[in-house]
Amino acid sequence: xxxxxxxxxxxxxxxxxxxxxxxxxxxxxxxxxxxxxxxxxxxxxxxxxxxxxxxxxxxxxxxxxxxxxxxxxxxxxxxxxxxxxxxxxxxxxxxxxxxxxxxxxxxxxxxxxxxxxxxxxxxxxxxxxxxxxxxxxxxxxxxxxxxxxxxxxxxxxxxxxxxxxxxxxxxxxxxxxxxxxxxxxxxxxxxxx
Length: 193
Prior knowledge:
With 193 residues, the chain is an alpha/beta fold. It has a single domain (30-190), classed as ABC-type transport auxiliary lipoprotein component (Rossmann fold, 3-Layer(aba) Sandwich). The chain has six helices and nine strands. It has helices at residues 13-27, 60-74, 82-91, 102-111, 165-170, 177-190; strands at residues 3-6, 9-12, 30-34, 45-48, 52-53, 78-79, 116-129, 134-146, 152-160. The strands form two sheets. Strands 3, 4, 5, 6, 7, 8 and 9 form a seven-stranded mixed β-sheet that branches. A two-stranded antiparallel sheet has the order 1-2. Helix 2 (60-74) packs across helix 6. The chain is globular and about 50 Å long.
């Protein structure tokens, strides 16, 4: 057992290292919020609006949106057809979701016969470079707004894609960007239920 003496106190080095590692791992991954009085289980139909894209991949927002729709459908939610949303945006001359006011989001939900509207953004979607490895990184922010009240009833920020032990130390191939994106979406939507 390795012991370090600091200011007259003996400290177990291994125990400290484990505590730091657990603290680090606990702070990685995702953060999410569920409104205490939310009845997410009662929501049957969700309109997934176009996502904002803050990445260099011009299609990242739409790629993540399609994965979200697929995952919501697999969880037995009914999802508004993306073409209907596009048509609705064209008719009302809405250029960007970020420019919409809350009342407009609620009205869009009502017009699309949805009980909730999902808004989101993609912060990272691509390859990141470490010291000796390249690895995929995907970060998404998602919000679910209840149409009737206008309340945000669920919010999620999730990141995935750091290189694992084998990739960092032996250069083995990890997940692809596509696989990483699917993993992020599955884990994020999983916190809805």
